[in-house]
């Protein structure tokens, strides 16, 4: 939905909202602003770091430490963007405050980021196993939630 289409809808809905729903919407707008600042800051740090490494000749993509550092920063930006997107969906009032699917996806992205920046030579096997079990559990929950959403959509289309 375009931003110009969203604003009038929010204005129309504002008068019909309860005090708590108005508070919820205001909080989401503030959080979106904060996340945008975090995204800009993280993106600036990423650009600066990659630029400095390119200028100083330290950007060797075959070096796993460089790979870990750069992709860890990229995933930080991606996680923040996904979180901001989930807040914007909530502002459009298409779903509840934040959809469970979005939270699970953000958690999965955060754990994938952790796997990327993890130094396997210094990490205990139990920690790696715990992270892997967490990914598996979140994957199963994501699949169940997605499956439930698909069933609800098909039921509402049948009506």
UniProtKB/TrEMBL annotation:
Subcellular location: Cell membrane
Location, primary (coarse class): membrane
Transmembrane segments: 26-47, 67-83, 95-116, 128-145
Pfam families: PsiE
Keywords: Cell membrane, Membrane, Transmembrane, Transmembrane helix
Cited InterPro entries: P_starv_induced_PsiE-like
Membrane protein topology class: Multi-pass membrane protein
Protein name (record): Protein PsiE
GO CC terms in record: plasma membrane
Lineage: superkingdom: Bacteria
């Amino acid at each position: 939905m375009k931003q110009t289409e969203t604003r009038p809808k929010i204005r129309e809905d504002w008068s019909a909202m309860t005090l708590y729903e108005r508070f919820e919407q205001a909080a989401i707008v503030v959080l979106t602003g904060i996340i945008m600042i975090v995204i800009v800051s993280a993106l600036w740090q990423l650009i600066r770091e990659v630029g400095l490494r390119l200028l100083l000749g330290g950007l060797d993509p075959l070096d796993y430490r460089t790979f870990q550092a750069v992709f860890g920063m990229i995933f930080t930006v991606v996680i923040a963007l996904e979180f901001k997107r989930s807040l914007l969906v909530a502002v459009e009032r298409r779903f509840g405050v934040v959809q469970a699917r979005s939270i699970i996806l953000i958690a999965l992205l955060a754990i994938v980021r952790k796997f990327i920046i993890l130094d396997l030579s210094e990490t205990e096997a139990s920690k790696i196993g715990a992270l892997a079990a967490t990914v598996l559990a979140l994957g199963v929950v994501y699949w169940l939630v997605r499956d439930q959403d698909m069933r609800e959509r098909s039921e509402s289309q049948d009506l």
